[in-house]
Predict the structure.
Amino acid sequence: MSRSPAAPSLRRELVVWYSAVLLLALLSFAGVSYAVLRQTLRSTAAASLQQTAATTEQLLAPAYIPRVEVREERIEPGPGAVEALRRRTRLATGQVLDIYVARSGEVETHALRSFLLLAAVLIPLTAAGAALGAYSIAGRLLQPLQRLVAATRAIEIRALAQRVEEPERPAELRELAQSFNAMLTRLERAVETLRRFTADASHELRTPLTAIKGTAQVALARERSAAELRDTLGEVLDETEWMLGLVEGLLTLARGEDEPAEPQRQPLDLVPLLEDVREVGEALAAGRPLAVRLQAPDALRVSGAAGRLRQVLLNLVSNAVRFTAEGEVVLRAARRADGWAEVAVEDTGAGIAPAELPRVFDRFYRGDAARERGGTGLGLAIARLIVEQHGGRIEAESEPGRGSVFRVLLPPAAEPGAEPGPA
C-alpha cells in the first residue's frame, strides 16, 4: 500500500509564509524607495541647474543692474550630458546674457546603483535572518501544541481518565486543550455507560437463555407427552416474552436518547389519560383485594406528548399494582402553586428499602422484591427519560412496610398565542 506524501509541518508553513510576506514587503518597499529616490535626485538636480545658472548670472552682471526679462528653458543636452538649461537675461543696459548649464547624471546614476546594491545585499540577508528567527520563535510557540499532540497519542480507550495539560498561553491553545478535555470527559462517560450497559444486558439475558436451554435439554432427554411438551413450550414462551420486553425497553431508551431533548409537545388534559390508566390498573388488580382510585380535578392541562405521558403513568401504576398485595393504589393529580402539574402514584405495598431508593431509576436495577416478581428493570428508567424530555422531573419516596409514592412534575401548558417558556 503506497504512502501518501507527508504534509508539511505547521512550523514550516508559518516560516515559509512569514518569509514570503516579509520578502514581498521588503521588495515592495525597495521598489517604492527606488522610485522616490530617483524622482528626488532628478528634482534636486533640476533645481541645482537653475541655482547654478542664477549664480553664474550674478557673477556676470551685478545685482544693481536692473533685469528687464529672464527666461529659462530646457534644451537638447550635448554629448555626455543628461539635462541642459539655457537662461536668457535681458539687462536694462540692453545687453543679453545667455547662460548654458548642463549635468552629466553621474552622481544620480552612482547613487541609484549604490541603493540597488545595498538592497540586493540587505534584503536577502534580512529575509534569511527573519526566517531563522521565525523558525526559532515558532518552535517555542508550538512546543505546547507538540506536548498536546504527544499527550493525545498516549491516551487509549482503556485510559480515558487521563487529561492533557492546559497551557497558560497562548489562549487559543488553552481553549483547544480545555475543549479536548471536555470531549474526553464526555467520551469517558459514554464508554463507561456502554460498558455498564453491555454488562447489565449480558447478565440479564443470560438467565432466560439459560432457562430456555435447560428446558429444551430436559424436553429432549426422553419422550414427552403432548401435555408435557405444551408445558415446556409455555415456559419457553414466557422466557421469550420477557426477553422481548427487555429488548423493547432497550430500544425505547436508545431511541429516546437519540431524539431531541424536548419532544413535540402540545397542550393536553391529563385527566382523561389518568382515567384510562386507572382502568388499566383495575384490570391488573382484578381478583385481588386491591382498589385503584383516582383523585383529580375536572381538568389539568399540561404541555406534552399524550402517548409518552401515558406510558409513564402506566409504568408507575403497573409497578404499584404489582408490588401491592392488598390495600389501594391512588392516583392524585393537582395544580401546584407555581403552576406546574403534579401527579402522585401512592400505594400501600411493602415499600422500598432506603439503600435501594436512590437506584430505582437506574437501568436494570431491581430490588429483592422486584426480582421475585419479574420485570426487566427498565420501566422506571424509561419513565424518567420521558419526563425529563418533557422538561419535568420524577421523584420517589418510600417507607418499608408502609408503601411508596412516585411524583411526576410537569410544566403547565402555554396559553394560546403565548411563547412557551423554559421548563
